[in-house]
């Protein structure tokens, strides 16, 4: 069979930097921070009191009030972003093509907020006070399910849950579905909203969150920096519209990038820590590069997982050195989490959007707060800020608990 080329024809995101693609990108390249004090609940007794929250989001702008009340916040994000990405792509979904449009999304944890609300009601008022909508509100596959309902897409409808790699796994599998000819287009990416008492306390107990910069939240997320002390929890979404090249060209679509490789591996090592030798991360990156049929030296930008945790940043740096050799020192490495915090299952979606914008705009965002070099993290992390640069390839990495790894390779589109 002839392998189909897959292109990106639409982009949309809700994240701590903005409620749409334009404002998010503008704030990213300007080096602004979306991290601040937690407002979603009273965090005064928590050791980590900061987060990357989506600000001023009103779900009623995208759906009826009645429907919004029956959705967890992550599903509201999904419905809003799904409509935005369809609009941005210009794809009209109708009875003729709906069965060939997939919705494949990544969600890490699902409706934690809904679980907490109804568990409290159960304990305080008994089982008769638990809503019949509780289960449909919290299950992770309701993100692609509701996007399908609101957009009319009737193709494959699946959620991918692989911790912080969820969004990138979703994009990779959407790409694969189109390559195999199972669908012509796919709404894909990641979505998450777990800035809740349980979410924050759980990650705090793991000693994963930054808790020593509550008074200076804008400099708390410090990927690869020698003074990093944990990640900052974030929320949001990032969706891409993928299409086969022939389908996109037939309708005269705008093309923002091409997807040319996908890698997915497992560490078989530990429930939370990456392998110290970075083997799984390295094999994952190399798999995406090999699938594209290029040399590692052809890659010029990495959108790193860059969580601002000691073990992850050290391992990802080692993995890049293993894959790229001396070329690793020539790479431009950007870590978006320095400005947004860690969006967990949505990270790969948002970072996939920003990777495509990097190629489309000819601008590589910098890594904020990289000011204290770490001998174990000695590559070019763009600490000096945004740079105008016409990249040809951007490799986007995401790695998750359980040793799950995903890398997606984007290319600047050329006929």
TrEMBL record:
<protein>
    <recommendedName>
        <fullName>3-oxoacyl-[acyl-carrier-protein] synthase 2</fullName>
        <ecNumber>2.3.1.179</ecNumber>
    </recommendedName>
</protein>
<feature type="domain" description="Ketosynthase family 3 (KS3)">
    <location>
        <begin position="3"/>
        <end position="412"/>
    </location>
</feature>
<comment type="pathway">
    <text>Lipid metabolism; fatty acid biosynthesis.</text>
</comment>
<dbReference type="Pfam" id="PF00109">
    <property type="entry name" value="ketoacyl-synt"/>
</dbReference>
<dbReference type="InterPro" id="IPR000794">
    <property type="entry name" value="Beta-ketoacyl_synthase"/>
</dbReference>
<comment type="similarity">
    <text>Belongs to the thiolase-like superfamily. Beta-ketoacyl-ACP synthases family.</text>
</comment>
<feature type="active site" description="For beta-ketoacyl synthase activity">
    <location>
        <position position="164"/>
    </location>
</feature>
<dbReference type="GO" id="GO:0004315">
    <property type="term" value="F:3-oxoacyl-[acyl-carrier-protein] synthase activity"/>
</dbReference>
<keyword id="KW-0012">Acyltransferase</keyword>
<keyword id="KW-0276">Fatty acid metabolism</keyword>
<dbReference type="InterPro" id="IPR014031">
    <property type="entry name" value="Ketoacyl_synth_C"/>
</dbReference>
<dbReference type="InterPro" id="IPR014030">
    <property type="entry name" value="Ketoacyl_synth_N"/>
</dbReference>
<dbReference type="InterPro" id="IPR020841">
    <property type="entry name" value="PKS_Beta-ketoAc_synthase_dom"/>
</dbReference>
<keyword id="KW-0443">Lipid metabolism</keyword>
<dbReference type="GO" id="GO:0005829">
    <property type="term" value="C:cytosol"/>
</dbReference>
<keyword id="KW-0275">Fatty acid biosynthesis</keyword>
<dbReference type="InterPro" id="IPR017568">
    <property type="entry name" value="3-oxoacyl-ACP_synth-2"/>
</dbReference>
<dbReference type="Pfam" id="PF02801">
    <property type="entry name" value="Ketoacyl-synt_C"/>
</dbReference>
<keyword id="KW-0808">Transferase</keyword>
<keyword id="KW-0444">Lipid biosynthesis</keyword>
<dbReference type="InterPro" id="IPR016039">
    <property type="entry name" value="Thiolase-like"/>
</dbReference>
<dbReference type="GO" id="GO:0006633">
    <property type="term" value="P:fatty acid biosynthetic process"/>
</dbReference>
<dbReference type="InterPro" id="IPR018201">
    <property type="entry name" value="Ketoacyl_synth_AS"/>
</dbReference>
<comment type="function">
    <text>Involved in the type II fatty acid elongation cycle. Catalyzes the elongation of a wide range of acyl-ACP by the addition of two carbons from malonyl-ACP to an acyl acceptor. Can efficiently catalyze the conversion of palmitoleoyl-ACP (cis-hexadec-9-enoyl-ACP) to cis-vaccenoyl-ACP (cis-octadec-11-enoyl-ACP), an essential step in the thermal regulation of fatty acid composition.</text>
</comment>
């Amino acid at each position: 069979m002839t392998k189909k080329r897959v292109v990106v024809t639409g982009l949309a995101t809700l994240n701590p930097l903005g409620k749409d693609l334009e404002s998010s990108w503008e704030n990213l390249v300007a080096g602004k921070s979306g991290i601040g004090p937690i407002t979603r609940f009273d965090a005064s007794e928590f050791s980590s009191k900061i987060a990357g929250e989506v600000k001023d989001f009103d779900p009623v702008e995208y759906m009826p009030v009645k429907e919004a009340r029956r959705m967890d916040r992550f599903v509201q994000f999904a419905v809003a972003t799904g409509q935005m990405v369809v609009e941005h792509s210009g794809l009209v979904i109708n009875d003729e093509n709906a069965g060939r449009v997939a919705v494949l999304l990544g969600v890490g944890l699902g409706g934690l907020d809904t679980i907490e609300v109804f568990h409290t009601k159960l304990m305080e008022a008994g089982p008769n006070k638990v809503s019949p909508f509780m289960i449909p509100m919290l299950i992770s596959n309701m993100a692609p399910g509701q996007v399908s309902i609101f957009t009319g897409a009737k193709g494959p409808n699946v959620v991918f849950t692989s911790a912080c790699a969820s969004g990138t796994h979703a994009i990779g599998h959407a790409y694969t579905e189109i390559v195999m000819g199972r669908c012509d287009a796919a709404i894909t990416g990641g979505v998450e909203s777990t800035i809740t008492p349980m979410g924050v306390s759980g990650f705090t107990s793991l000693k994963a969150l930054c808790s020593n910069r509550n008074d200076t939240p804008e400099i708390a997320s410090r990927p690869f920096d020698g003074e990093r002390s944990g990640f900052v929890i974030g929320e949001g979404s990032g969706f891409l519209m993928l299409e086969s090249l022939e389908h996109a060209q037939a309708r005269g679509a705008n093309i923002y990038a091409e997807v040319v490789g996908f890698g997915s591996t497992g560490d078989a090592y530990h429930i939370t820590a990456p392998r110290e030798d970075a083997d799984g991360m390295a094999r994952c990156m190399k798999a995406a590069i090999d699938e594209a049929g290029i040399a590692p030296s052809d890659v010029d930008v990495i959108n790193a997982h860059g969580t601002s945790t000691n073990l992850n940043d050290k391992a990802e740096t080692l993995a890049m050195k293993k894959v790229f050799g001396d070329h690793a020192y020539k790479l431009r490495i950007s870590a978006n989490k320095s400005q947004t915090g860690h969006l967990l299952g949505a990270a790969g979606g948002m970072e996939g959007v920003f990777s495509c914008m990097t190629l489309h705009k000819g601008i590589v965002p910098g890594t904020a707060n990289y000011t204290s070099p770490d001998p174990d993290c000695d590559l070019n992390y763009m600490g000096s800020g945004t740079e105008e640069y016409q990249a040809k390839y951007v490799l986007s990495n995401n790695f998750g608990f359980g040793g799950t790894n995903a890398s997606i390779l984007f290319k600047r589109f050329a006929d």
